[in-house]
Amino acid sequence: MNDKDNIIKSFEGKILGVCNYKKDGQSYVSDFLDKKKLLDFIWELESGESTLTKTGYMFLEKYYGLDSLAKIILKENPNFPKKIEKEIIDWLKVKNDYAID
């Protein structure tokens, strides 16, 4: 089992994010592994429609790395309000400061 598999296994079943407008709008590891779902969640996180959990931030940090995640966001979503990697990384860190447990 490689490091990524171990990360996935350690976060299985944990709530990584919450969609604020759905009754059962919880995000899990499988959602954050699916690039489309992850990018949709990131967009909703930016707009305030979803909330990251502390566990979700830890998963993003360990599995993707904040630098790599910022590159993915910029590449896949050119309309994202933050336009450089450092802005996205700083934004993610702020989201972690306000993340729910």
What does this structure look like?
With 101 residues, this protein is mainly α. It has one domain. Helix content is 61%, strand content 8%. It has six helices and three strands; from the N terminus they run αββααβααα. It has helices spanning 3-11, 29-33, 35-47, 54-64, 66-76, 85-97; strands at 17-19, 26-27, 50-52. It has a three-stranded antiparallel β-sheet with strand order 2-1-3. β1 and β2 (26-27) form a beta hairpin. The model has no long low-confidence stretch (mean pLDDT 94).
Spatial order of the strands in the main sheet?
2-1-3
The number of strands is 3
The succession of helices and strands, N to C, reads HEEHHEHHH
Number of helices: 6
Cα-based radius of gyration, to the nearest Å: 13 Å
Cα(first) to Cα(last) distance is 29 Å
Beta-strand residue fraction: 5-15%
Please bin the fraction of helical residues.
55-70%
Number of domains: 1
Question: Quick one: biggest sheet?
Answer: 3 strands, antiparallel
- Give the overall shape, derived from the CA principal axes: globular
Q: Give the overall pLDDT as a whole number.
A: 94
Give the class from helix and strand content and strand pairing: mainly alpha
